[in-house]
Amino acid sequence: MADDTRTPTLLVTGGRVLDTGAGAYTGATRVLVEDGRVTAVGGDEVVAPPGAEELDAGGRTVMPGLVDAHVHVTAATADLSSQAEWSPAYVTAHAGRIMAGMLQRGFTSVRDVGGADHGLAAAVAEGLLPGPRLFFGGKALSQTGGHGDGRAPGRSAALDTSCSSGLARVVDGADAFRLAAREQLRTGAHHIKLMLSGGVASPTDRIDSTQSSDDEIRAVVEEATAQNRYVTGHAYTARSVKRALRLGVRGIEHGNLVDDECLDLFLEHGAFLVPTLVTYQHLASEGAAHGLPPGSVAKVATVLEAGLDALDRATRAGVDVVLGTDLLGGMHVHQSEEIAIRAQVQSAAQVLASATTTAARLLQREGEIGVLAPGALGDLLVVDGDPLADVTVLARPGESLRTVVQGGRVVHRAV
Fold this sequence. Notes:
Organism: Pseudokineococcus basanitobsidens
Pfam families: Amidohydro_1 (PF01979)
Protein name: Amidohydrolase family protein
Number of helices: 14
InterPro entries: Amidohydro-rel (IPR006680), Metal-dep_hydrolase_composite (IPR011059), Metal_Hydrolase (IPR032466), Metallo-dep_Hydrolase (IPR051781), OTAase-like (IPR057744)
Distance between the termini: 31 Å
Strand content: 15-25%
Largest sheet: 6 strands, mixed
Number of domains: 2
CATH architecture of the largest domain: Alpha-Beta Barrel
Structural class: alpha/beta
Number of strands: 20
Helix content: 25-40%
Domain Amidohydrolase-related: 61-408
Shape: globular
Radius of gyration: 21 Å
């Protein structure tokens, strides 16, 4: 019987290869992918070995697959507290549907910052579920009463010992944070996420609060560093961002309320900012319809207006900015709109880099994802139009995205 698991050799011809890091077309027209990795990029001198599959790009743009660095693939509803009571098998079924949609929108890699675990990552890697390459951190770590504590105000820990939400785990004290970080890293987590300020979806905290003590943060940073991994933090306010960066947190999720001192600290520490603008627009307009509790809906306005300005100032300051979306429930379908939102204040080249090469550096996969060059993973898109001239074509994947290739396999074709 033939081995159907063998990765085919694929030669893409007739395209215009886009270098998203350089923000320029390379002049190459062909990309060869063998055993899941790019082996050659060039012109007519790049030829297919016998038996290779050929894909004619028909003069279209050929570019690296996109990266979304802030997703929750298990978040099948905006009511995260109620989802904590769902069957794990039911959650996985929803996650499979959500990830398949991401792949069809051209996101060939995603970083899950709360919810996905080693089992889900393995299912995708082994082809049991279609989806983007999944860089997971397990459950985010939160203090009692923090952004990861899903209990209503009237439920006490004495009555409810399983107060963690489906996306986070509640722990208190430096030793408990350290142990929780070690447990996540033991499973192969690519990063650890900390809740460092209040949030929208959590029922009992204020947006402007700071969360997790200095000692708790230091303990997790020490453990991640020891494993050559890193810590990223959910933080909105300037106070929470500055404290995190000074304590060694490498990435900031959201950062809507940063000030100029924050931007200086990003540059000083070589840290990354991952804004998630599309989620606030849709939480405001349709969050309630997808299960977001009224108290959380009321918080959205606090961060909605500030997000685009923070992105603009961070970009002008030269901060490493990465694309993220943070959508929940039925709002996952709006993922690609983040590209159009960012195009209001960023150039096409800046948006493209944020979703490819800069994202790869954040994920510690530079040269492997977000680029089409020998040695890189064979993830690429064939796109109608010119994203370098008008990046918003990628915000309309149903119109512009012709083919998605992951690891040298065609995983989606436009009908």
